[in-house]
Design goal:
Blueprint (H helix, E strand, L loop, with lengths): L9 E2 L27 E4 L1 E4 L3 E4 L3 E2 L1 E5 L3 E2 L5 E9 L4 E5 L11 E4 L4 E5 L5 E10 L2 E8 L6 E2 L2 E5 L9 E2 L4 E11 L21 E5 L6 E3 L3 E5 L13 E3 L1 E3 L3 E4 L2 E3 L2 E10 L4 E10 L4 E6 L6 E6 L4 E5 L3 E7 L5 E8 L4 E9 L11 E3 L4 E11 L18 E5 L2 E5 L4 E7 L4 E2 L8 H5 L9 H10 L11
Parallel strand pairs: 1-18
Antiparallel strand pairs: 2-6, 3-4, 4-17, 5-16, 6-15, 7-14, 8-13, 8-17, 9-10, 9-15, 10-11, 12-13, 18-37, 19-36, 20-35, 21-25, 22-23, 23-34, 24-33, 25-32, 26-31, 26-34, 27-28, 27-32, 28-29, 30-31, 35-38, 36-37
Length: 470
């Protein structure tokens, strides 16, 4: 699979045709100019566009990304290229205060290794990549920040340990460039430069080098309707709680002995033999077992998943279960349910046990048990959704999206312009503001650029087939 990056650079395709797998996003503004006001300087000064010098103030010596986002926006990949000045150690964190070792990382230039690796509850999948000429690309996946907001934080540490991140400076220097924050729904983390605007969305034209004929390449298209409403917000009005307290993407079991789940009624008048698919993204909180099923009518159709490893604990006859892990580290749980009883379809999500129970099991809860749940989707028929794409965001109405379209290459010599004709369709929308969650993850202020982002989303699952070149 080859990732096509829509940016200001060039992409070299394979000789045997194209396959479009993903798109890349950088939510940091001024990714190669830390002198800009968008980057807060805490006890450091900036020389040129990429060098910081620590001062004598006691405390952190870092730059901090402006425009912090709520941690409810979900996991972010974070990257920075660093080059050694006179400082030996680099500190990174997704939280401006870097107040806990759980979400603070420290890198050592001399050993080319991490000396503090945080806690995988908050940061994981650490990476070190040599970019040449002394530049090192450091990266990690921010799973969950503990503060109300999260930022991209990079700077100098006086030593290899967590306690060394706070100190009185003496004029040490560090070079920083190519800062990047890539949200979970972008399945490529390749670098994209941003200039002049903060938190940008992306152009609908790029520069692409090709070696073959020029023409229109038609990508695979498919339409998805999400019948669930409030599809990424468990606090929404569509959801009815039974002995649970919801957060946006967190369920907490109420204290007591009882069943603990939440439900969304999807459809009525469903016939015997109809097929519906339930898909959700999930991770364990303090509880490992997810119970998910259709409680619309008897007999109940359900499954239990162990979110610690993605294994299927058990399921009912008539339920096909699949669990796959996405690039963001979250499990996609997919149930294709063949109805054996006419009536109502209801998506139910809650706490399961170490052995499968047809209904949500009654158990003794302390009131501290949690599950992490995102991107709830219900489709009529079997789902084509994958662990990395195909989710349709909804608020108070169902939504239909068409994924895929055409990419048109217009010959301009050895380098060609790429035009996007995505065939992207939206049905049932009452206002663009209902796309707030999707749009906010890029920049809530740039409403005039929403279509650009949505076009890229529409292409995420597309395939460009060399055999169908125009």
């Amino acid at each position: 699979m080859t990732t096509l990056l829509l940016n200001k650079g060039a992409v070299q395709p394979p000789k045997n045709g194209w396959t479009l797998d993903a798109f890349a996003i950088n939510s940091c503004g001024y990714s190669e100019d830390i002198s800009q006001a968008d980057w807060t300087k805490l006890n450091v000064s900036v020389t040129g566009t990429d060098m910081i010098t620590d001062d004598a103030t006691s405390g952190l010596h870092v730059i901090i990304e402006g425009g912090a986002r709520p941690n409810s926006d979900g996991p972010y990949w974070r990257f920075a290229e660093v080059k050694q000045g006179t400082a030996r150690y680099v500190v990174l964190s997704p939280v401006a205060s870097a107040a806990s070792s759980a979400y603070t990382l420290i890198y050592d230039f001399d050993t080319n290794a991490w000396t503090e690796e945080g806690n995988t509850t908050y940061v994981k999948d650490l990476s070190i990549e040599d970019k040449g000429d002394g530049w090192i690309r450091l990266g990690y996946l921010e799973v969950q920040a503990t503060g109300s907001y999260d930022n991209h934080v990079v700077g100098i540490s006086s030593g290899p340990n967590f306690a060394d991140r706070s100190y009185s400076g003496s004029g040490d220097t560090l070079y920083i460039r190519k800062l990047q924050a890539t949200p979970l729904y972008a399945s490529s983390t390749a670098y994209i430069q941003t200039q002049q605007i903060a938190n940008p969305s992306f152009p609908t034209e790029g520069r692409v080098r090709t070696e073959g004929p020029v023409g229109t390449f038609e990508s695979q298209k498919f339409t998805v309707e999400n019948l669930a409403t409030d599809a990424n917000d468990l606090t929404g009005l569509a959801w009815g709680e039974i002995n649970v307290t919801p957060g946006k993407n967190l369920l907490t079991a109420d204290a007591g002995t009882h069943k603990a789940f939440t439900s969304d009624t999807i459809a009525t008048g469903v016939a015997v033999g109809d097929v519906y698919s339930f898909t959700v993204k999930a991770l364990p909180g303090t509880h490992d077992y997810l119970w998910i099923g259709d409680r619309g009518n008897l007999p109940l159709l359900s499954a239990t998943i162990d979110l610690s490893d993605g294994s299927i604990v058990g399921s009912e006859s008539g339920v096909d279960v699949e669990v796959t892990k996405g690039r963001d580290g979250r499990w996609l749980v997919k149930l294709d349910i063949t109805r054996s009883w006419a009536g109502t379809v209801s998506l139910n999500i809650g706490f399961g046990g170490a052995s499968h129970s047809v209904d949500a099991p009654s158990a003794a809860y302390a009131g501290t048990e949690t599950l992490q749940i995102w991107d709830m989707q219900v489709e009529e028929g079997a789902s084509q959704r994958t662990a990395d794409a195909g989710f349709v965001l909804t608020s108070n109405a169902t939504r239909t999206l068409t994924f895929g379209g055409n990419v048109i290459y217009v010959n301009k010599g050895a380098v060609q312009d790429t035009k996007l004709d995505t065939g992207f369709d939206v049905a049932g929308a009452t206002a663009w503001d209902e796309y707030g969650e999707l749009q906010r993850q890029i920049d809530a202020r740039k409403r005039n650029q929403r279509n650009q982002l949505l076009q890229l989303v529409a292409l995420t699952m597309g395939t460009i087939d060399n055999d169908r070149r125009g």
